[in-house]
UniProtKB/TrEMBL annotation, chain A:
Name of the featured protein: 7, 8-dihydropterin-6-yl-methyl-4-(Beta-D-ribofuranosyl)aminobenzene 5'-phosphate synthase
Organism: Desulfomicrobium macestii
Lineage of the organism: Bacteria, Pseudomonadati, Thermodesulfobacteriota, Desulfovibrionia, Desulfovibrionales
Database matches in PROSITE patterns: TAT (PS51318)
Keywords for this protein: Iron, Iron-sulfur, Membrane, Metal-binding, Transferase, Transmembrane, Transmembrane helix
Compartments in which it is found: Periplasm
From TrEMBL, chain B:
Protein's UniProt name: AAT family amino acid transporter
Keyword Transcription regulation recorded: no
Keyword DNA-binding appears in the UniProt entry: no
Segments traversing the membrane: 20-42, 54-75, 95-117, 138-158, 178-197, 267-287, 307-329, 341-361, 381-399, 438-459
Keyword terms of this UniProt record: Membrane, Transmembrane, Transmembrane helix
Length: 388, 467
């Protein structure tokens, strides 16, 4: 009898313990997880500030921020192809179209129509592709020239991105004198921010003038992208960026971010500059990693003067198609706390975002809206900004 | 008591056609094949209809889930006769019931939301209206689909809750279709209230300038959630959706079914599910902070609070897949211990399996589902394939009686009595042993929680899921 009682008691104990285990775990989750005590457990950010030197100034010339001329056509083509995750090389856009229609392209078929013409006869190549592609008048491109002044006054030139349309980018290069700089090998390197059409597919235009320029690409590039570098006529060996921070020159570093991006692109590289006595300047192509993530990474990993964020330039990728989401307001609300003194934005930042920045009282540098740039809220095509 | 006095799902018993694990293996294989084929036809960005982006595919699979719940749980298969359900071949039943659900879904989405609500009430439910006001077609579709889909997310918590937690009260004695219509209208009405309180402000912020005269902008949750995004609500609502099924399946409505008083049991179950869901929601958010570091408001993706809240819902849905699989295809294993021990083992087991599904998904989905590599792509929505898979589970088990691995037979009177007795379980009684065990279990549960949160930063620093 007594054994029986003990057995029952033991069974009851196990029942209670099993119930308590689950209940206790959930109760702890609810009472502790979102409490101040839980967050006091998180370690404080450890700053491991890499010294990448100092420069006197950096001047940015916007060669082209107009990556495409019509949002509805661009996003309509993507929609027709099957949405934002469709591989960009199948979209059937120039210069890699095969004429089979939306979402039915292929890199191999597209490039085969123009490969023999790259990079020496871009006019003919683009004419051929215009006949095969969707909305051939829509491509533009993003590209900017960076002139970095060292502390001794010497100026070094770099190119960030190489645009999209051969026709448009060649005219933009000529307008800003980039063609001659490349011919004279005055430009030390070309950085491709990411593999997207509007930053990268204009590569033959740069190759036309300098096919040995040092070329930096993110290690997330797909095989089509790496093949396109060869097919564009590049005679050098591209530098595959695989480190979070790569120093390029005193006060200039290339930062790598591993982020998934629409149309099957992966990874973005951006630039940081340490301007003497001023602070940090961040320059991006599209900023798919997000400007605050960019800033936070720099805060944690770089050493810069005054420990101060001084300026931003580039596409900030917020409302590129004039779309909106409440989370973008989080950015507009939060950006002010980071204390940037100069904000030069364009391209995928979106007009609506620029408008909201201006309304929030942020130091946005306005542009001239020349050469088909649409808004004075932007630093448009041909506009310049100097940090330092 | 006879079979016609209970619902069809309660009246039948699913019996294996073959011994051992063969039925589960056969069904799993067929379900995965059907999943992949239909994924390719409807959702895959490389496939035929490519409904994955914008949100159209998401909206469809959420509303299909609701229609399945309505048809099977709330309408008890009305207007189909019990005799038809009993005699028809499962393949025909599956096809007919699925197509009826699809038709009803299209009428509801297109007829009610787009045409009626979108034309005569709230413009953002109708993409044509948004386009006419200058919004690009892609985003007009995306915004309208998001609003319609979010309504379904709320309903997919409230609809089953009314059956599972509230036991259809106070309309449980009404015949069909009066009971179904009543419960659908009530849960639809409640969903609308929850929608207005949780998502309408989110939608109002989508447009420039903020629609302050029609919604609360900035919304009340901003300070608490560290974002103005409605993703904060998606987090706890998705957790509610998952917990209601945990409670119904692997927990067998334990422990709230120990409460004998009908009203108290129903109210406690309903709000208990919410309380458990909120606890889970807070934990899953905190777990991400422990693994990836604190959020930064205004940044994007992995480090953004709005994405982390969304990911809470995504993580929760990963738990629902093994939970339903265990219940549907593994006979709710284990069954040989006492109910609390069975529940505890199933909870731990399915939580561990959820982690496995999560890891496998993020390691491989970009290869075979056509989604983007990475956790936090703005168009990476694991809820879509998970709910798509769950929908197929439901078609197979609810509409096809588990064919081909299982067949439905009528429960005996004794089995029906036994089932009825389960509404109030009597196998756990308050004793000193229980009290002692409960106290120690609670402490052990707290220790388990603290062990997990202690381990998570190490996991973040040492384990890479996506290379």
């Amino acid at each position: 009898m007594s054994t029986n009682r003990n057995n029952i008691s033991r069974r009851d104990f196990v029942k209670g313990a099993a119930t308590g285990l689950v209940a206790g775990t959930f109760a702890s989750m609810g009472m502790y997880s979102y409490s101040p005590w839980a967050y006091s457990r998180l370690p404080k950010t450890q700053r491991n500030q890499q010294d990448f030197g100092t420069c006197r100034s950096v001047r940015v010339t916007n060669i082209s921020e107009t990556s495409w001329f019509n949002n509805a056509h661009l996003i309509g083509d993507i929609h027709e192809a099957g949405g934002l995750l469709v591989n960009q090389y199948t979209l059937n856009w120039a210069p890699l179209a095969n004429g089979k229609g939306s979402g039915k392209g292929s890199y191999e078929e597209g490039i085969s129509t123009i490969k023999d013409l790259l990079p020496h006869d871009l006019e003919k190549a683009w004419e051929i592709q215009k006949k095969l592609s969707l909305h051939p008048e829509n491509p533009g491109g993003y590209s900017c020239l960076l002139e970095v002044e060292a502390l001794d006054g010497t100026v070094r030139k770099f190119l960030l991105d190489t645009g999209w349309s051969y026709e448009w980018m060649d005219s933009c290069f000529k307008r800003e004198g980039i063609d001659q700089m490349l011919r004279d090998q005055e430009i030390e390197a070309l950085f491709i921010s990411h593999e997207h059409w509007d930053h990268f597919w204009g590569l033959p235009v740069t190759m036309k003038y300098d096919n040995r320029i040092p070329l930096y690409v993110h290690d997330g590039f797909y095989k089509e992208g790496l093949q396109y570098i060869k097919d564009s006529g590049y005679k050098g060996e591209p530098v595959i960026v695989n480190k979070p921070v790569t120093q390029i020159a005193p006060g200039m570093a290339l930062l790598k971010f591993d982020v998934p991006i629409i149309n099957r692109v992966f990874g973005e590289t951006s630039l940081a500059f340490n301007i003497k006595d001023k602070g940090l300047v961040l320059v991006s192509g599209c900023n798919h990693q997000g400007i605050l993530q960019f800033a936070d990474f720099a805060f944690t990993n770089l050493k810069y003067d005054n420990d101060k964020f001084y300026g931003i330039y580039g596409g900030l990728h917020i409302s590129p198609f004039e779309d909106w989401d409440p989370k973008y307001d989080d950015l507009v609300i939060a950006l002010g706390q980071w204390g940037f003194e100069l904000i030069g934005c364009n391209h995928c930042t979106g007009h609506l975002t620029a408008k909201k920045f201006v309304e929030a009282g942020y130091p946005v540098v306005r542009g001239t809206a020349r050469f088909r740039s649409a808004s004075e809220d932007y630093l448009g095509n041909g506009d310049k900004i100097t940090f330092g | 008591m006879d079979n016609s006095s209970v619902s069809y799902l309660e009246s039948r018993k699913l019996v294996k056609r073959w011994n051992g694990p063969i039925p589960a293996l056969v069904n799993t294989f067929l379900i995965l094949a059907f999943f992949y084929a239909t994924w390719w036809i409807f959702q895959d960005p490389r496939g035929l209809m490519r409904m994955y982006t914008p949100y159209v595919g998401y909206m469809v699979c959420r509303w299909l889930l609701i229609l399945f719940i309505w048809l099977a749980y709330i309408f008890d298969f009305w207007p189909f006769k019990r005799s038809w359900l009993n005699k028809t071949h499962p393949l025909i039943k599956g096809a007919v019931l699925t197509l009826v659900s699809v038709a009803a879904m299209i009428i509801l989405m297109k007829g009610f939301f787009v045409e009626i609500l979108g034309n005569f009430g709230i413009a953002y439910f109708n993409p044509d209206r948004l386009m006419a006001m200058g919004i690009t077609e892609f985003y007009a579709i995306e915004y309208a689909a998001e609003a319609i889909m979010m309504f379904a997310a709320i309903a997919s918590w409230l609809s089953p809750s009314w059956v599972v937690a509230c036991e259809n009260a106070p309309w449980q004695k009404l015949g069909q279709p009066a009971r179904g219509i009543t419960i659908v209208l009530v849960t639809f009405f409640l969903s609308m209230i929850v929608y207005f309180v949780t998502m309408h402000s989110h939608m109002a912020i989508l447009f420039y300038p903020w629609q302050k005269f029609t919604a609360i902008c900035p919304p009340y949750w901003e300070e608490f959630a560290n974002t103005v995004s409605g993703n904060f609500h998606i987090a706890w609502i998705m957790c509610c959706t998952v917990v209601v099924w945990l409670y119904e399946t692997i927990w067998e409505r334990y422990p709230f079914n120990l409460i004998k008083h009908d009203g108290l049991r129903r109210v406690t179950s309903f709000f208990g599910i919410i309380a458990i869901a909120v606890a889970l929601c807070f934990f899953l958010f905190y777990a991400q902070d422990l693994v990836w570091g604190s959020t930064i408001r205004g940044t994007r993706r992995l480090m953004a609070p709005d994405w982390r809240w969304l990911h809470v819902g995504e993580m929760a849905i990963f738990w629902l897949v093994p939970t339903l699989f265990l219940n549907f295809y593994c006979n709710n294993w284990p069954n040989k211990f006492s109910r609390p021990v069975n529940v505890c083992i199933r909870t731990l087991l399915t939580a561990a399996l959820a982690v496995v599904v999560y890891v496998i998904y993020y390691k491989t989905s970009h290869l075979f589902l056509g989604t983007q590599k990475g956790f936090s792509h703005p168009q990476q929505f694991p809820m879509i394939p998970m709910i798509w898979l769950i929908n197929i589970f439901l078609i197979n088990v609810w509409f096809m009686d588990g064919w081909p691995g299982w067949k439905a037979v009528q429960k005996t009177e004794a089995e029906l009595e036994n089932h009825q007795n389960e509404v109030v379980a009597s196998d756990v009684k308050w004793t000193q042993g229980i009290a002692k065990g409960l106290g120690i279990g609670l402490v052990a549960g707290a220790l388990l929680y603290f062990a997990i949160i202690k381990a998570l930063p190490w996991v973040g620093a040492n384990i890479t899921i996506i290379k």
